[in-house]
Amino acid sequence: MTASPGAAGTGDPAIRAVALEVEAHVAASGWDQPPRLYALVPTTDLIDAEPALAASLGIDAAQSAGTYTPIEQEDVPADQALEEVLASIGWPPGVIGCAAVVERLVLPPGADDHLPLDDTQALAAAAAHPGKQDVRLAVAVTRDGRAHCAVRLRSHQADVLDGVDLVPTLVGLLRHTLTD
Q1: What is the per-residue pLDDT across 140-177, written as a single tens digit (0 to 9) for each?
Q2: Which of 1, 39, 75, 173 is the right S-S partner for 95, CB 3.0 to 4.6 Å?
Q3: Which pTM was predicted?
């Protein structure tokens, strides 16, 4: 996998690492994956809470300072859009951040102007559009406002574009889940 910085720079290395990690984790299972949601906890907190697990995984406290561990949430409803799920959740204070990975269809500029108004028909037309691109979006955010995005195109699977503000709508939705 080749990661290249996005236009906004690479931002915070720890949150960047998590965004790339969760994208790579989902990518290992191929395409056509359901949305995934992760709680982010400081790795040192995980080591303190589960020292035997950390030791068995070879996680060292000194090397893990300032890093985050993503914990996948198993109960993400499959019959709801991720955006709807995010609008209905909030994280407890021990969760320092969250991350999501979702696949979407992207159309060339102007193509969506010609889609039917009916959502079902629009989705079918978008899926049949010759210029469509399948993309996987991974976004990680923290309570203190840091964020990082990773984007992989199905047509260029070896490359991952990453940067701070590549997917602003998803960044905003995830940040909202972290507010009290």
Answers
A1: 999 999 999 999 999 998 999 999 989 999 999 999 99
A2: 39
A3: 0.84
